[in-house]
């Protein structure tokens, strides 16, 4: 006998872990599309609608921008911003030097 799981019917809601992973990828994609290079190194994990941002940025402003960038994503009910502010970090974006 095979232990293979049947495919869910079309239009079925994906399992929570798959949906959370898709939301996290969408959040990270948005962060990487901004003009702020420091946000491209921020990561996001999502679990039950709670998005957790991690990484380091050179300013409190960019920490807030990261939150705004993912704030209106479908599936994100709450954001926990664990991004560290490290003013002395090296950044590639000349506007912040």
Short description:
This protein has 97 residues and is of the alpha+beta class. The chain has helices at 16-32, 60-70, and strands spanning 43-47, 50-57, 78-85.
Please describe what this structure looks like.
The chain has 97 residues and is α+β, with helices and mostly antiparallel strands. The protein has one domain: Histidine-containing Protein, Chain: A, CATH 3.30.1340. Helices cover 29% and strands 22% of the residues. It has two helices and three strands, in the order αββαβ. A three-stranded mixed sheet has the order 1-2-3. Helix 2 links the parallel strand 2 (50-57) and strand 3. The longest helix has 17 residues, at 16-32. It is elongated and about 40 Å long. The termini are far apart. The relative contact order is 0.19. The model has no long low-confidence stretch (mean pLDDT 85).
């Amino acid at each position: 006998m095979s232990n293979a799981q049947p495919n869910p019917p079309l239009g079925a809601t994906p399992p929570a872990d798959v949906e959370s992973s898709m939301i996290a990828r969408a959040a990270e994609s948005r962060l990487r599309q901004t003009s702020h290079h420091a946000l491209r190194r921020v990561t996001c994990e999502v679990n039950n609608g709670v998005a957790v941002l991690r990484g380091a940025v050179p300013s409190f402003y960019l920490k807030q921008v990261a939150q705004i960038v993912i704030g209106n994503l479908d599936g994100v009910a709450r954001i926990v911003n664990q991004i560290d502010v490290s003013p002395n970090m090296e950044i590639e974006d000349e506007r912040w030097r």
